[in-house]
Amino acid sequence: MSDFKKADHSPSEALEDAAEAGKTAEAPAGEPDPFVVLQNLQAENADLKDKVLRTLADMENLRRRTEKEVADAKTYGVTSFARDMLTFADNLRRAVDSMPAELREGADGPVKTLVEGLELTERDFLSRLARYGVKRLEPEGARFDPNMHEALFEIPNEEVPSGTVMQVVEAGYAIGDRVLRPAKVGISRGGPKPAAS
């Protein structure tokens, strides 16, 4: 009868019953207690399971970090080269701007061809930079942002809110979401305070 009752027990209850019976009975000399061995194995199993889960989480984090680094390298890999090329774009603009507007409009022949060639070269160069994520900042009329602009001077103007970019001295450029070179600007002073954004 007692054997029949033991069969009704669940496996965990049977282990508990065996453990209780094992407490009263001693293990043979020289052999480890099987229940202590079982507990040690269960603890080791839990420890190994925890280590596997942590390793999997570390691998997932490493994969994400690597993907981000590869994407950043693609986007920002040309930063140094692009920064060096900005002086070329500035010099093209200076060459076009150095010719007075009246002379440019009345020019014909080789002078007109030269000016048109410079303007075409500048547009082509800027479009090539844009293919690599470099874009010109157009801050005129925008609110001054110290992350994107460098204020060189203030222009008294009471009609425009203070801190509005009134004049661009040197164009700024950005690559991706980073500033490659801040725009050098003149900002308004003396007008109403800008609206909170």
The level 1 CATH classification of the domain at 134-197 is Mainly Beta
- Which CATH-level-2 architecture of the domain at 134-197? Roll
The residue ranges in which pLDDT falls below 50 over 5 or more consecutive positions are: 1-7
Q: DSSP helix count?
A: 6
Tell me what the structure shows.
- The protein has 197 residues and is an alpha+beta fold.
- Among the domains are: 9-23 and 31-70; 134-197, Nucleotide Exchange Factor Grpe, Chain A, domain 2 (Roll), CATH 2.30.22.
- The protein is 56% helix and 17% strand.
- The chain has a three-stranded antiparallel β-sheet with strand order 1-4-5. A three-stranded mixed β-sheet has the order 2-6-3, with no helix packed on it.
- A hairpin with a 2-residue loop joins strand 4 and strand 5 (178-181).
- The radius of gyration is 38 Å and the shape is elongated.
Task: Give a brief outline of the structure.
With 197 residues, the protein is of the alpha+beta class.
Produce the secondary structure layout.
Blueprint: H1 2-8, H2 11-24, H3 34-76, H4 79-97, H5 101-106, H6 110-131, E1 134-137, E2 149-156, E3 165-170, E4 172-175, E5 178-181, E6 183-189
Parallel strand pairs: 2-6
Antiparallel strand pairs: 1-4, 3-6, 4-5
